[in-house]
Amino acid sequence: MSIYVQTEDFDLSTELAKLRADKPAIGAVVSFVGVVRDMNEGMDVHAMELEHYPGMTEKALEDIVQQAHQRWTLQDCLVIHRVGPLQPLDQIVLVAVASAHRGEAFSACEFIMDYLKTQAPFWKKEQTPEGARWVDAREHDDKALSKWGVASSNSAGKDEDVS
Amino acid sequence: MVGLTVNIELRFFASIREKLGTSAEQASLPVEVKTVGDVRAWLMTRGGPWAEALAEGRALRMAYNQQMCGADTAIADGGELAFFPPVTGG
Predict the structure, then answer these.
(1) Which pLDDT does position A160 carry in this prediction?
(2) A71 near A14, Cβ under 8 Å?
(3) How far is A94 from chain B (nearest CA, A)?
(4) Tell me, what is an example of a GO biological process annotation in this record (chain A) (predicted)?
(5) A134 contacts A123 by C-beta, under 8 angstroms
(6) How many domains does chain A have?
(7) Closest to A37 in 3D by CA, of A105, A87, A106
(8) Has residue B22 been placed in a domain?
(9) Residue A70: CB partners within 8 Å, gap ≥ 6?
């Protein structure tokens, strides 16, 4: 398992080569790259800033990846999440999963992304023509996680009941 | 009485940090403050932006010792308690 929270960009080919190196049991690698769009909620976005909770972010991502390992037989996982100032076209996040067969890798990659969207402490602030605004959490992302049998009310207006 | 005082570190992130104008604080808690929810209520008694940003019914998430938690979570000396809005990474 490799988890990186960093300001630097990443190169997909390099990362996948490192993930696969010297692991001949791997038969499938699935990767997801999230990038900055120039439009959100009907407004132009010309820049954004990603804030996070150092320490907790890494722990939350490790926990998410461990849960993926418990659900599927995986050879290895990599998560890179960028923080700091970003612009449209920039890469934000990479999730790569390696397994013996494609089914596990496809599922685990989507699971990790769905989990990350609602449980990892990152916050986006967008610069728009009308000024800066914090991005609102989306109910759609909670629903995406619910298909894995995991409840999330991250986007709810009221306090989350996690007890 | 010495030994009863509970000191914790408070952390604030994103829109909550901006509303409060601070990102961290060392707090000495009154003895009756025992849970995460108690700390929130105690901070709200400061009024102004504190009462507003931490108001019940606001979309607010809490983490104790870097784990997402609910209001009932007990706090102890040396703990770290964070308040922040719903997360929006990825």
Answers:
(1) 47
(2) no
(3) 9
(4) Mo-molybdopterin cofactor biosynthetic process
(5) yes
(6) 1
(7) A87
(8) yes
(9) none
Nearest CA in chain B to A91: B90
The distance of B1 to chain A (nearest Cα, Å) reads: 32
Question: The domain containing residue A114 runs over which residues?
Answer: 2-146
Spacing of C-alpha A24 from chain mean position: 26
**Cα–Cα distance, A74 to A104 (Å, whole number):** 7
Where do we find the tokens 């602030």? A125
pLDDT at A123: 98
pLDDT at B44: 97
Residue A82: its H or E element: strand A76-82
A53, A116, A162 member nearest B90 (Cβ): A116
Q: What is the CATH number of the domain that holds B16?
A: 3.10.20
- Write the CATH number for A35: 3.90.1170.40
pTM of the prediction?
A: 0.93
B86 part of a folded domain = no
A156 occurs within a structural domain: no
Number of CB pairs, chain A paired with chain B, less than 8 A apart: 103
The answer to whether residue B84 sits within a structural domain is no
Q: Is A22 a member of any domain?
A: yes
Express each pLDDT in B14-72 by its tens digit.
999 999 999 999 999 999 999 999 999 999 999 999 999 999 888 899 999 999 999 99
Model ipTM value: 0.93
Would residue B23 count as lying in a domain? yes
Model confidence band, residue B2 (pLDDT cutoffs 50, 70, 90): low
Query: Measured between alpha carbons, how far is B2 from B13 in angstroms, rounded to an integer?
Result: 32
